[in-house]
Amino acid sequence: MPSAPSKRLIGALVEHGRVDEVVEVLLRPTGWDESTSRWEHFAMCMTERGRSAELLTLLPRLRAADIDSFVARTQIDTLLADQLARENRWAEVLELLKHTSGWADTWLPRQLGRLGLTDQLRRLADTGNQTARQELVELLLAKGPVNDAVTVLRGLVEEDSAQTPDRWAPTTLAEQLSDQGDLAELGTRIATGDSFAAAVLADRACQGRVPNADQILTAGLSPDGSFPTG
Questions:
Q1: CB neighbours of residue 27 within 10 Å
Q2: How far is it, in rounded angstroms, from Cα 12 to Cα 28?
Q3: How far apart are CA 152 and CA 158, in angstroms?
Q4: How far apart are CA 128 and CA 181, in angstroms?
Q5: pTM score, two decimals?
Q6: Alpha-helical segments (H) within the chain
């Protein structure tokens, strides 16, 4: 399989206005990771050189072309959605998303998170979109209210309990409980077998970030999950 074009080559070709040559080499079959980063670099080079309008003309033309590569088609769609979103052309974004092959399930919530659109993220998270739920939590942790983020995390952990546990949700919940001083709930979760909460507590105790850290490290918690009192 041919290697992907170097980022230096892409930048040089864009610099000299040889955009068609960039597209030609990008359309050669390569590995997913290589191709993804090169397409993104191409879009960045075009934008940095003030050629966003040209990029917005080029990408729909490429979408209409008969391109065999699934990787290339996906990258073209994603870059077009990115560019339209930056231009606040959301009606066109939503129309594009109707005809995608699945990447929109992660792309849209990440865009909403980047824009800080909490209400829209909540509605999307309520549909069961896992990426939207994670983006919502991260946005709430960054901008508040943090208690709302903890509530979302509790719901995610409860849903996951009957399935294969998702490390991110219980770990983040335990970290927030520790940071907020809610040691009662943290201890209860550990007592009921939450290994992720136990790992967080052990880490925080090693750092001396919980009360009576030395006793926790030597004797652990009480069977009911209560912390040592001194």
A1: 18
A2: 18
A3: 10
A4: 30
A5: 0.69
A6: 7-15, 19-26, 32-48, 52-64, 70-86, 90-97, 104-115, 118-126, 130-143, 146-160, 168-179, 183-191, 195-206, 213-219
Q: What is the pLDDT of residues 16-36, one digit of tens each?
A: 888 888 787 777 655 544 556
In the prediction, which pLDDT does 3 show?
52
Question: Do you know the residue count of the chain?
Answer: 230
Q: Strand, coil or helix: what is 100?
A: coil
Question: Tokens representing 181?
Answer: 């001083």
Let me know the angle formed at the C-alpha of 150 by 145 and 155, rounded to the nearest 5 degrees. 130
CA 49 to CA 54: how far, in whole Å? 11
Which residues of the chain carry a pLDDT beneath 70?
A: 1-5, 28-36, 101, 160-165, 230
| CA-wise closest residue to 209 among 170, 180, 172 | 180
CA dist 28 to 2, 22, 185, 199, Å?
Answer: 7, 10, 54, 46
Q: Which amino acid is at 145?
A: P
Q: Quick one: angle between helices 19-26 and 32-48, nearest 10?
A: 170
How crowded is residue 99: how many other Cβ atoms within 10 Å of its Cβ?
9
pLDDT of residue 109: 93
Q: Which two tokens stand for residue 201?
A: 């507590």
In DSSP notation, 122-149 reads: HHHHHTT-HHHHHHHHHHHHHHS-HHHH
Per-position b or e across 2-22, b if 16+ CB within 10 A of its CB:
eebbeeeebbebbeeeebeeb
